[in-house]
Every structure is written in structure tokens, then in C-alpha cells.
Queue: 4 jobs
Job 1
Amino acid sequence: MCVADLESHEVYRDDALIDAAPDKTFRILFNTFTADPSILFSDQGYVRYMTVVLTLNNIGVTNNISMVFPDFPLLTQPELIGGDGMFCNNTHRPERCKPRHACFCLHRLKVALNDVVEMSLIDDAEVVRDLYHPFHLHGHRFIVTGMGQLPEFRTQSEKVDFVERSRRYARTMPSDHNPPYKDTVSVPSRGYTRIRFRADNPGFWLVHCHFEWHLGIGMSFVLQVGEVDQMKKAPRDFPRCGSYKPDIYSQL
């Protein structure tokens, strides 16, 4: 049974969330790929990877971006954010990133406070595997409005089109449908899961695969909800963070 078919025992029901046209819609295609060993340790090499079996050096991506975390926490030290230029997404990539190649940067998606947000999480794998990716959203809870597996498509646009055609809004469900709220959900292998939530908690929130090694190799992104001046401020005596890596070139 799919999560989208379950009923909640929770009395509270947000009908406006279920029926509303979303203010922001995102299609998140995720996958892992094998790094090319010939450039892995060169000047054009990759930021990080994980060796799974012998020569299989895996790197994780969402929308062909492998997440690079900043040296400081965005929420508690926002004064260090160097403008929107320090962020990237699938339409705004650094100039150093080549077309149709994985890009290593700080992946951020931004929504306004109280937006109704819909995300389609799409497993971009070529084959069906035993592995289901559990995706977790920090700071919010969501309802699941659709789930299924993809046919054997060759392109990402074909996969997105299929997911769009498979929409399953509450209007096609029983009028008393009361979906459960979740903060983590599995995405079927070579499949998709569509979630919907109200972005009512301002801040910078991580969205990631909950396999820790997938998170470690870049399968994540940051969801910014609202503007910095709408977010809660850290206490004055809150610990501050920075880069822990020494500047090796200054020691030479």
C-alpha cells in the first residue's frame, strides 16, 4: 500500500493545503553516478565521493548538483552569506560548471513564507533496484499526494512529463480523504513521490536522502523559507562556527 493511499487519524485537516494550487512547484531528480577515476584526483577532480566496492566511486546529485556545504551555519550566521551568488540551482549554475555535467556548489531552492510548496522527488536511476531512497525534510511536515514507478524512459524530460501526467490531487480522491503528515518518505526505485506542505517555518532547512552516505556524497539541497529578516535570530552567546581546515598553502 502506498503512503498516498493511507488515512490519518489526526483530527486536524488542512483542506486549503490539500486543494490549493501550489505557489511553488519543484521537480527534484536525484541519482548517484560513478566518478571517472582518471580525473578524480586531478585539478578538475570531484569534491567528494565514496568508494562502495573497489573501483565504484559514487557521487550523489539532485538536479545534477552535488551539494557543497558552507563553512558556517546559514541560519545562525546569516551575515556571512555573500548574497545570492554563493547559491546555485539547476537554472543558475557557476560558470565553471559544464553543461550536462555534475556541478559542485551550494544547492538552494527558495520559497516565500507561507507558500504552499509541491515537490516531485524523482529517482533518476536507469533500472529498478532493491534500494528505496528515504527523503527527509527538516523544519516542516508534508502530505504525500502521489507515488509510483516510472516506465523505462531515456531522458529526464520524459520522466518529468510522466510524473506531471500522473497527478493525483484531492479532487480525484474521496471528499473526506485525510492524508497523514510525514517528514520522511521513501521514493520507489526508479519512481517518484509527490509531497506538499505549507512553508510556515522561516529558516534554512536541509532536504536530503536519509542514507547517511548518500547525504555525505552530495544528495541534498537547502530549502530557504522566507527572507533572513523573517527568521529567528540566534542568541548573542550562541557558539560560532567557521572552516576547520587549515590553509595549507600559507604554511609552505
Note: The mean pLDDT is 87.
Job 2
Amino acid sequence: MAQQLELKTTTVPSNSWPRDLLLLLLGVMILSCSAIFTRLSEVELTPLATIFDRFWIASMALALMNGLKGLKQISTADVEADLTGESKLAGDTPWVEGLLMLVLAIAIAARAGSWAWSLTQTSVANSNLLHNMTPIFATLGGWLFLGHTFDRRYLMGLLLAVSGVVAIGIQDFNVTDDSFIGDIAALMSSVFYAINFLIIEKLRRKLSTTAIMTGSCFWVSVILVPGIWMEGSGFIPESASVWAAVICLGLLSQVLGQGILAYVLSRMNSGHVSLFLLLEPVITALLAWMIFGERLSVENWLAFVVVLTGLYLANLSQGASGLESQG
């Protein structure tokens, strides 16, 4: 069965596929640094304060970008230019799109919060491994709710890539009664991340990347305010290094990294985009090997090959599918 995503949209030119793939890889590489920035910021800030700073800084940056572009309002009634320089004109934004934007913000906040909390309740290895199950839920959700269908080559690639990631983290995985709740929280973070991708893919049919990023970052900041207030901890960094860390989280990880993923979701399906996030543990392990001299076993290298093979198979399936998506 050939993969066919039944979206009522225009066909993405075949020559755009390599560029989209390179953009996706760039986005994943940027997001792979998020853990480093988060760890640096948590020297002074709580996990919730770190998340809040990430999103309010991103909101301010996006608002400034909109102002510089002369956008008076974010609406699908405007002619919106995207990263390709292409423009599109859509009708008035219905209330359901506003509701989706709010649900997206809730999913983003829930994903970030559940993952951060899981790190306090279970091991880092358990949390990372379960958090990386996002492609499974994104593929299932795309099939159930967005009408995606996938061929055997894609499904085989998904199975191989997930198996490789499991092989990377399984050596340090521990199953104990004390970590059960934290493990569930980490797994739920992958579910929320999948919901994030599915909603963005749905919204990208009518809204621009800038509109989605601005709206979601603003609402996430608003949603987190009560938590910051109840926590009673400060959210303003005291040192220059922590300021640099949260600014990098807001500008690089959120605006640029997540912005690239949001853009690519107008040209690839959510299951495929989330699948490439499985490169994060591979990139992180390689950086630790090159920078910190951490040892990589033969099993690690074999797992990397399995992940890359799975992504290659999924890439062949996606590239040959004649994917139709909104430009």
C-alpha cells in the first residue's frame, strides 16, 4: 500500500524535498542543545521557571519580529509570507482554530511540565527513553485523526529507528516501584509532544509559522503564570550565564528550532517529522563523545546504525510518496 496523505492542498515540488530535509535536520540539531541550556539555567532556576522564561522570551522575540514585518494582527485574512517567500490568502479564522491554538498551548505546557517533573521522579535514562516514544503516538494519531496512511517501508523504518533508540538507552533503564510514576510522566510527555505535532500540522493548513509560534508561545506563558505564582520561586536569572542559557532556550530552541519544525509540518506529515527527533539522543551521545570524551560501546555504534537505517527507510517512503501538503 503506497503512502498517501489525503490533504486537500497543493503538491510540494519534488526539488524542495532535499531542502526540507536539511531544514528538518537543522531543527533537530538545534533542539539537541536544549538539554544543555536547560541544565545551565537550572543552576539558579526551577524547571517551571526555566520553561516560563523560555516561552516569554520567545513571545517577546516573535512579537518584535511581527512588528518589524509590519503585521498589525495575526489572521488568516492577511496575505502571509512564509519562509519560502510564498504567500497564501485564507478566509476568516474560525473559532475552532482559536480553540486549537489554546489546546496546542496546553499540550506544549503539559509536555514540558511532565518531562521536567519526570526527571525528579525517575532516572534520566528512563525519562529520555520514554520521552522518545513520540513518533509512535504521532504516527498513530495521524492515522486516526488526520487520515494519514503509511506504507510498509515507512513502518519498518519507524520500527528500526525506535528499536535503535531503545538499544541506546536500555542499558541504563531501571524498572522499580519508586520510578513508576516518573516513568508514566515521561511517557505522557511523549504523548503530549505527539499532540503538539498533530495540532501544528492541522493549523499549518491555514496559518503561517509565525502566527502559530506567536500564539502558542504567548498562551503557554499565560498558562504557566499561576504555577510560577504558586511555586513562589523567582523566575528572573541573577547571573549572566543563566540569562544566556534562558535566552538561548527562547531564541534558539523555541523560536528557531521549534519554528523550523512548525514550518516543515506544512510539507511533511507529523509522524515523519517526529521520527527525526530520534536523532536527538544520537547527536547528544556523539557530542558527549567528542567534547567530554565519554566512551561509546560497540553496542552504541550499532544502535546508531540502526537508527540511521530506520530514518533512511522512512525518508525513502516519504520522498517517493508524492506528498501533498499546504505550501
Note: The longest strand covers residues 80-81.
Job 3
Amino acid sequence: MWHNGLIYKLIANKLPHYLIDIIILFLLNRTFKVKLNSTLSETGHIKAGTPQGSILSPLLYTVYTADFPVNNHITNCFFADDTAILAQGSTTKFVIRTLQRGLIEIEKWCTLWRVAINTDKTHSVMFRKGHPRNNLQSLTFVEEELSWDKEVNYLGLILDSKLTFHSHIKYNTDKFWAKVHVIIPLIRAGLKPIGPIAPNRAPR
């Protein structure tokens, strides 16, 4: 989050001045250094972002993204800083055209409020039955062409284009058995053989 932009939005939302002053003191004059082996960098000033782990950071992020572009044909999905947009329609052309318009608006918003987008982590997938007759037209975002993937990982859930969840089930099954193969030798090592136990005899 760009600090000056956040402060502007706090003022625009007519928060009490004393709260804005507290938040400004909370954000400004923060510094950082980077240490690599025994080398320490010079002091840098943090002009964006909020302290990780602070209970105030999610609330400020919500305020900052409250004016995120809204479209009647697009559903916005937010979870922390992970964002997905969804569009549906009777034809792929309509869906692609709707998504492209939404991406253009999002790009304008990100440019205005200095939000950096990692296009390497930006993916597109078309959920539908059957097989496409023609190649789907690529989407463009931040001067990058987004290819259509067969599946995408969102919030730990692997979504394939058919929504069969086969890949997600296989991934978790393989992960489960990998854990089991690690645990079994530990269980065997912890088991000790027990010798025969002599029966108790009553005293004569």
C-alpha cells in the first residue's frame, strides 16, 4: 500500500482527524536494513506497505482496496492480497471480452494507486464442458499476454478447467502417502520387542 494514497483515502472517507494522525504516526518514519552474510546495507525508508502481523494492517488494506473496480458482469474475489476475478456467459467470446475490459480497469486502478502486479503469478483458466473448437484469444494485462492454463492453484485449491478436482485430489493423496512413508520407519524404530512374561505365582 502506498502510504500517501492510503492517507488520501482515509481523509476522503472522513475519518476523524485524530485517528488519521495516529495512523500516520503508525506508518511513517519506518526504516529497514538488509543483511547478507556479514554485510549490512544502508538504511532504507519504507514508503509503502504496513507492518506484517499487525492487527491494523488488514483493516487498512480493506480501506485501500474499497474502491477496487466493480463490474456488473464480473465477480471480485479477495483473500488478503490474493485477488481473482470471475466472469460467466453463454459464449467464450463474451467471457473473454468481459474479462479483458475488467483487466483494463484494474490496470488503470493499479497504476493510479501504485499497486505492483506480479504477472508471473497471474493466470487465466476457462472453466467449461467439452473441448474448445478454436484456440482461445489471449488476455492482456500490464502489457503481458496471459495464456490460458489447464488448471490454476488458488488459495491452495487446484482448479482444473473441467472442475473435476482430479489434480487436487491426486496432489493431496501423494502428499499424504509421502508423509506416511516418513512416519512408518519412525514408528517401527519406536517399537521394542517384549519378551515372555512369567505368570504371577501365589506365595507358599
Note: The radius of gyration is 27 Å.
Job 4
Amino acid sequence: MPNHYTLAEGCPYSNAATSVQLRDGRGGGLSLLQDTQLIESLAHFSRERIPERVVHAKAAGAHGVFEVTDDNSDITSACFLNGVGKKTECLVRISTVGGESGSSDTLRDVHGFAMKFFTEEGNQDFIFNNTPVFFIRDPLKFPSLNRSHKRHPASHLPDSAMVRFFPYIGEQSFHTGSPESIHQLMVLFSDRGTPASLRKMNAYSGHTYKLTKEDGSFKYVKFHLKSKQGIQNFTREQSEQINGSNPDYLIQDMYEAIERDEYPSWDVCVQVMDPKDAESYQWNIFDMTKVWPHKDYPLRKLGQMTLNQNPHNYFADIEQAAFSPSTMVPGIAPSADPMLQARMFAYPDAQRYRLGVNYQQLPTNRARSSVYCPFERDGAMNSHNYGGHTNYIGSSLSPTVYATSSKGSGTVASTMTEHEKWVGEVVSYISPVVDADYEQTRGLWRVLGKEEGHQDRLIGNLADKTKNVKDVSLRKRVYEMFARVDEGLGQRLQEETEKLVA
């Protein structure tokens, strides 16, 4: 540690605990504007908060390592996924979604799982959730979905998680007006909606990605992270009890486990689909409200990720960390998934607003590989601006800047195959909800029935929220939505809710 304090510019300061004052003989005095330390300290304090994330505001975070455990060269050319035993540094942020930074992390919510792998070919980001499906498949609904999970615009009170009223859609809530959310709601209101530990839950890409090879071939994949600690969830009653005593329970559990050298780890796996299979598969493979059944596409292991170091400084390491699904290395590419395409814009745009246009230069986001991007320069907080290098591509004035990179992308983004054209036609109409949209949810209802008490707890969790709906016609719409999954489910939900309302 230094043996003296300084101002931010490095000038030594003799006493960091006392301001400069013009004193009288009785111990009183006036503060002086010449006290640079006082002025700087007060001014900086008012500016110490950066904009909070609109979603995923509350999170735990840690550093770790990804290790390749299997030969993956037949499906991808990504360097960090090839070479058994190869290790890559990573950063992980695990968050709630709807609540503010100061909210409880044990209340029912989806949990985000953001990862950054610092590879020799640049950073690879993934944005996963702890549920394999999502509420919507049309990105136009994304802002409304997230607003619907925020506080009521008039009362500033949290609405019932089942019947969010913002935005208003006639007499419907967001979810009854967007019934494709039923699969995610069934998952969220089961015990999986209240994980007992961030270390003991899985994570899923939800999105369909491509793994590509240098010859231009590719496979469609969905990523799965399988917890090696097992799965552990709270019941609703347990989560609410812990919420009342420790709203930071999940963050504390993760931090203290790593401090004890109990490093959590996950097997990183993929489901792999040939592009030709996608053309005839029974469901649209780019629909985030559906899964690929494992009986059709079993898991294949790529490697293992382990978190082994807590952040040195939470703000610097985790709060300033920026993740975007648009950040991809050669060997990984986007699919025609509409939600993925929209998020590839929305996420980095959020970081430009929240952290500034040069957020990639912050230490926690900075690539470990070499970076040469002189056509993105200037702007606030730029710490590396390429000196006198020409600031546009293909200039004859700078022999170090080339119109075409000497490093191939390793993806198939530059070619449009007949299959890609087929994909474009298939995903043109994605909003209408038909009976087939309930098929997988019916399967989930049957799976929950195989373990004693799971269906009962799901109904109890739903009824506990639906009872808060004062509008009788809106409650009826909720019953009808779940009755489309199973008539017995809708009837039991109605009976349980009406008991609580009475």
C-alpha cells in the first residue's frame, strides 16, 4: 500500500479525513472552495453510480476456467473448443431478471447466466438462462415482456407475476395476451423457478446457434450447462422464508463456497442437429418457446467450466462486465433465430448506453488477444486510440490497414445457401399460437406428475399469484390458458384460486 494519499491526478495530500477550513477561535469555520480534495470527493460521490441494468440487475459473479474434455474438431473450428486439455480463462455473471439490484435473489424468477471466454481469437460471449425455453419468440415483444415484469406504472408496486398489467392489451395481461409464454410459465412456476443455489442449477442457450468449420459446413446446436453439484430447488414457502431473513442468500452462497475452495463446475454440452434435419423437423428449431427432445438429439459433451476465484472488486469486475450474444469467435455463428438476431443488437447497444461507447476497453471486458480496430476510435473514455494510424479501412496512406483481413472468419456468414433461404421463409410468420404450441407443455405437465407433489406445488404457486387478480374475467382467461395445456390443470387451478379469493 502507498504511504500517502493523493488526488486523482497523483498530487500528494496530507490529510484525507479533514477538509480545509477558515477557523475562528472557538473551533468553528468556513469550508473553502480551494479545497480540491473536498470538491472532488463530493462531486465524484454524486456520480459513482452507473445506470443499472434494466433487466438482470442483481447478480453474483466469479472468474474461472473452461477446459476442453472431448474431441470437438468434427463439428467446430473454434480454437478454444479444440484440443483436449486446453484451458481458457472465463468470467461468469449469474443474475435474477426482473428485480432491481437491491431486490431479493430468492424470489421466483428466471436466472440469467452470462459468460465471457477470453480466447486467443477474441472474446466469446454467451447469454443463457436457467430455463431451456423463453416467454416469447417474436423480438418485437421483448421490451413489453420485460416492462410487464416491472413495477406498476401507477402504484409503483410489483404486480402479480402471473398477470402483469403493463402494457394493457384490452382486458388481457401480457401473458394471457401472449399465450406462447405458457411453456416458460409452467417451468417458472414449478420448483425450478426458485433455485436453492446458483451452483446447483443448469443453464441453457435457448437460442439455436451454429457450430462452423473452416470448409463452410455447419451444424445447428443448442448449448446446455449441466451442474456437477446436482440440482437443488426451494419450495415457494422456503424461498419466501429465506427472502425475509437474507435477500442476498444466493450471492452469499456462491461467494462463500468459492472462498472455501468448493469450486462449482458445469459440464458444457450441446445438442447437434444437421441442417437438413431442420427442414423436416416437427417444430421450428428457431422457436425459443420449444425444446429439442433429448431422445431426438442427445447431449454431447464439449468440456467443463469451473469457477475458482471471486471478484477482486465487484464493481470493476462484475458490474462493469458487458456481455453480448453478438460477440462470437470463428467457429461459432448465429442462426436465423429471430430472438438471437434482435439480441445481437440490443445487448451491445445497452452496454454503449450504460458504460460508454468504449466499454470493450474496460479491464474486465478487454480481450486477451491482440485488438486492431482503428475504424472505431475517439469517444468518451478511450484509452487506446491507435495514434496516427489511418481511421478508415483500405487507405493507401497506411500500409498496416487492409481492406480485406488476412484472417478468415471461419463462419458461413458470407454465403447464402439454399438451406439459408429455406430458413428465411420458415421464420417469416412466428407469432400465431396454435394447438401444437401446447404439445411440449403437456409433456412437461406429465413429467411433473411422475414425482409426488410437483403438480400440486405448481398449482399452488400459480394460485398464489392468480388470487391477486381482482378482475374476474381476467382470472377466467388465466384458467382458460392453462386449461389448453390440460383440462384438469385449468380446473384445479380455478378451484385452488377461488378458495384463496373467497
Note: The CA atoms of residues 417 and 423 lie 10 Å apart.
